[in-house]
């Protein structure tokens, strides 16, 4: 799916900044896509954009209202529906990554049909994907993988794409989750694709390209996560990655949501990912490790990364503290 740009970011009645993290992510990584924000009176979040009414946003060129807030249960309240109907009537499409579908709300469906607008439930695929064929294809691909879920794969991927583009490299971020899709305007939410077609979906969004072009593919889950290893495997095979970047959060005591499962050792995790990736690209290698050190102070973070770098023999960085330049430097071998 491709969302029309630019966006009006809907913060609704977000209870705090964390509840509006999707909108903040769009504003951080794609500020050029944003014309402003819409907040209800009770909203406690602020992305630092100009507050606009629906009419003001349309006059500023907004083409899609993006729901950038996630509340408990993904509920679209009656108050939200009134604003969304107004946006459709004014000429905007609507996009959301909530569990609750826009297309399950009769008032929105009726209004969208009446005014020729589109409702994008980006978590759910809008097209059929083929079974993967595993055939080699031109271009280069980098995939972020993780020791666990929610360790910074999307952030690392976006940071790598930005660093590449800042250097004049030909690169595109390929979103595989709903937040990434809303940030960039396209992609596939891999966790909602039927298992047989995950690898084919990733082949579809990362097709053959110029030899110098890099697709930077957002990873999902972990091979060591009992709940989501299947999604990760499909991503690895479909991406046909030339390069992997491992993402890790060092203070975790167990896999996210699975207290009976310990985090894997770094070297074991890297070898498992390489072994899986060699099925579709025998020459795959790691270019570095991205560590989320937000739970560590500066000295502890630097010490940990230095020790890990000595152990793995690859650049180890925190993309927030230090950037990802050293990982991009290490891509020259590919």
UniProtKB/TrEMBL annotation:
Domain D-glutamate N-acetyltransferase-like N-terminal: 45-125
Signal peptide: none
Name the UniProt record assigns to this protein: EBNA-1 nuclear protein
Domain D-glutamate N-acetyltransferase-like C-terminal: 131-328
Pfam families: DUF1611, DUF1611_N
PANTHER family in alphabetical order: DUF1611 DOMAIN-CONTAINING PROTEIN, GLL3100 PROTEIN
Taxonomic placement: Bacteria, Pseudomonadati, Pseudomonadota, Gammaproteobacteria, Vibrionales
């Amino acid at each position: 799916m491709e969302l029309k740009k630019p966006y009006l970011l809907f913060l609704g009645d977000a209870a705090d900044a964390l509840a509006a993290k999707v909108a903040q992510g769009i504003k951080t990584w794609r500020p050029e896509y944003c014309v402003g924000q819409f907040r209800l009176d009770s909203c406690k979040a602020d992305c630092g954009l100009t507050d606009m009414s629906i009419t003001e946003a349309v006059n500023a060129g907004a083409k899609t209202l993006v729901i950038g807030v996630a509340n408990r249960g993904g509920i679209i309240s009656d108050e939200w529906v009134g604003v969304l109907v107004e946006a459709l009537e004014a000429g905007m499409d609507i996009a959301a990554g909530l569990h609750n579908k826009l297309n399950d709300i009769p008032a929105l469906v009726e209004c969208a049909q009446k005014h020729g607008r589109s409702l994008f439930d980006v978590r759910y695929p809008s097209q059929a994907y083929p079974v993967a064929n595993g055939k080699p294809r031109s271009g280069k691909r980098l995939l972020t993988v993780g020791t666990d879920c929610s360790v910074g794969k999307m952030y690392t991927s976006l940071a790598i794409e930005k660093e590449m583009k800042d250097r004049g490299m030909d690169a595109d971020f390929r979103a595989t989750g709903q937040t990434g899709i809303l940030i960039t305007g396209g992609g596939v939410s891999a966790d909602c694709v039927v298992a047989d077609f995950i690898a084919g979906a990733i082949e579809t969004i990362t097709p053959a390209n110029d030899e110098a072009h890099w697709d930077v593919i957002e990873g999902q889950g972990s091979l060591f996560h009992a709940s989501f290893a299947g999604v990760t495997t499909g991503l690895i095979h479909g991406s046909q990655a030339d390069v992997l970047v491992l993402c890790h959060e060092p203070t975790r005591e167990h896999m996210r949501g699975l207290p009976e499962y310990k985090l894997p050792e770094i070297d074991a995790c890297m070898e498992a990912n390489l072994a899986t990736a060699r099925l579709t690209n025998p020459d795959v290698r790691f270019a570095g490790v991205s560590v989320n050190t937000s739970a560590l102070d500066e000295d502890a973070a630097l010490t940990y990364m230095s020790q890990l770098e000595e152990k793995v023999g690859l650049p180890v960085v925190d993309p927030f503290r230090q950037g990802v330049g050293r990982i991009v430097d290490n891509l020259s071998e590919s």
